[in-house]
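Hey forum,

I'm writing up a methods section and want to include a predicted complex as supplementary material. The small molecule is fe (ii) ion. I've pasted the protein sequence and the SMILES. Can someone with a working setup run it? I'll credit the forum in the acknowledgements.
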Amino acid sequence: MSIKLLAEGSTKWERFIKHWGISFLIGEDVLFDTFGDAGVFWRNLKWMKVDADKIRHIIISHDHWDHLAGLWLFLEKKKDVTVYVCPGFSRETKERIAGFGVRLVEVPGPLEIKKGVFSTGQIRGIYAGKDIYEQAIVVKTFRGAAIITGCAHPGLSTIVDEVKKYFGETVFLIAGGFHLKGATQEVIEKIVYTLKLVGVQKVAPLHCSGALAQDIFKRAWGGQGYIRLTAGKVLRLDSEEEKGADNKCGAKGTPQGAEVL
Ligand SMILES: [Fe+2]
Ligand SMILES: [Fe+2]
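Reply by user p_vandermeer:
Happy to help. Structure tokens for the complex are below, copy them as they are.
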């Protein structure tokens, strides 16, 4: 299973110019979040030669503009998709999506989107003093669960707890927005401790993770475990449904520029 970073914004400048948000392509047919700039999102799809006609499932992590902007443009062009949202998204967002005539699925709890790829279902977090609901992606691999997050507003520890509760297996990798921008060293180190305790072997902090957290995670996981993803880069996971197929690590067919895990 390949996980390609389609677009990401993580620096102060990128936030200022609204080159902000995150978007992943999982396999060829699952889109997770759609970045905060529709133009950049669409340009990157073209640049990376992503076949938009193959995309069948779009999962939106949470109801924030920097994860939704590309969706509106995408749905203007392609209707043959299912969009997965949390029940806790605003009525306005849900109605806007449904208005495109696409299938809208609300995901209250864990749901298999396609073989080996799941949504956690909505998990409650707090943002700016209000409830926010967010879903993350879980890909089942030989080595345990790989978790992909949008912003991780509910907190990484909570998300990992939920995944372990439902999937009951080791969490092998976490990639995406970790929502630690502005967090103190103490808070970040506590999270590192928790993740180490549950056996997380690979981390790829992006987007709203913050430079301090990226630094601390880099030191904690080192060269083998810390992954710096940039737009266009691919993580290649050997997922469970590929077991037994001619698809071992490093096998031919690994996308160019891929990081084989
Ligand atoms: Fe975000
Ligand atoms: Fe957010």
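Some notes you might quote in the supplement: The longest strand covers residues 2-9. The mean pLDDT is 92.
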